[in-house]
Amino acid sequence: QLQLVESGGDLVQPGGSLRLSCTGTGSTLVHYAVGWFRQAPGKEREGVSAISISGSSTTYADSVKGRFTISRDNAKNTVYLQMKSLKPEDTAIYYCAAGERYSDYASEYDYWGQGTQVTVSS
Q1: By percentage, how much of the chain surpasses pLDDT 70?
Q2: Rounded to whole angstroms, how far apart are CA atoms 35 and 37?
Q3: From 11, 17, 30, 119, which residue has the greatest number of CB atoms within 10 Å?
Q4: Please, which residues have CB within 8 angstroms of residue 18's CB and are 6 or more apart in sequence?
């Protein structure tokens, strides 16, 4: 069964960059669309970005457009979220999820990672 492991979260100053990784174990990510979601304290989970199985389609939340880039490396069984120009409001736990359908909606994803903490603060 597919399991997802996120990594790359850290404490970073405003304006800084981070790259999150989502690696599949137990099965291959090649057959799945992958989404990144985040949840800040006291707030609901929100979709950040998603990438289709082929990698040819991507989507971003308005709040991160132009700053975040999602990509996938099927040879490494990994999906990345490159984050630039980070803001304090990007602070959250970031989760990756995999599913058979490319979607903005969390309900479409069947497999979830444990999350990685991103903190943007001076």
Answers
A1: 100
A2: 7
A3: 119
A4: 8, 9, 10, 12, 83, 86, 118
